[in-house]
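Subject: for your reference before the review

Hello V.,

The reviewers asked for a structural picture of the protein, and I figured it would be easier to keep everything in one thread rather than splitting it across files. Below is the amino acid sequence we used in the manuscript, unchanged from the supplementary table.
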Amino acid sequence: MIRNTSALALLVAIFISAQASAQNNTALEVGTGVDYSTGRYGAATDTSVFSIPLELKYQFDHIRLQASIPYVRVQGPGSFVGGIIVPGSTGNSTRSGLGDVNLGATWMINQDTNSFPAIELGAIVKLPTASSGLGTGKVDYTAVANIYHSLNPQFMLFGSVGYQWLGDFGTINLENGVVASAGMNFKPSQTTSIGFAANYHQEYFKGLGDQFTVSPYAMWNFDANWRLVGYGTVGFTTASPKWGAGMRLVFFR
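And here is what came back from the structure prediction:
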C-alpha cells in the first residue's frame, strides 16, 4: 500500500510483517520512526521532507487493518500534498505540522504455500487532516493488490500493483494513476532480513513525468516483541527524490 517513496518502510512492513504474522500469530503492531527525503522535482532548488509517523496495524484471521498519521516538516519551493511533491508552488519556505491520516484494510485471499503465492486485496483512504500547506484538503483513494511467495525459508519475492485517485490541489490538477512495486527479501537468520524494493508511480503532475525509485532495507527482530527497520532510497527520474532514508521501531505481539 504505497503512499510515497520517502516512507518505503511502510511498503516493506506490508509484505514482511504479513509473512511474520502468518508464522508468528502477530495480532498487533505499533511503530514509529523517522523518514527523510530530498529532491528537486523539476524546481531550481531542493525540497526536503522530514516526517515522524505513528503507525498502527491489527491482524485478525485474513483481515489486516492499518492506520498512520505523521508529523511533517517541509523545506523548499515544493508543496508536500499528502505524500507527493508539487514543484515550485510555495517559494523557498518551511512548513510543519500534522499530516494526513491514512486508513487501510487488506483481505488475504490466499495464504502462501509451496505451490501458490499469497494474494491480498486492499484499499487506503487518505483523510484531509493535514495542517495548512501539508495536504490537498481532499480525500484520496488507493486500491491495491499484493502478492508474495517464499521460494525457500530464506528467499521471498514480493510485488504490488494498484491505482490511486488524487484530489486536486487548489487550482492544480493532479493526475490519477498506477502505483507499483517489486522486490526480494533474504533472511540470513531467524531474526534478520535484508532486501530491496523497486517502486513506480505514474505521472501525477503534468510535465513532471513518472516516479521511479529503488530502496534497499534491513530488518532486525532484536527481541521477542521488538523490530528495527532501516532503509535508503535512490531516485532515477525528475519526479523522484534524489535520495532518502528512514527507520522504524516496531512493537509487535
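For the response letter, the relevant points are probably these. The first strand starts at residue 28 and ends at 39. The two ends are 22 Å apart (CA to CA).

Happy to draft the paragraph if you're swamped.

O.
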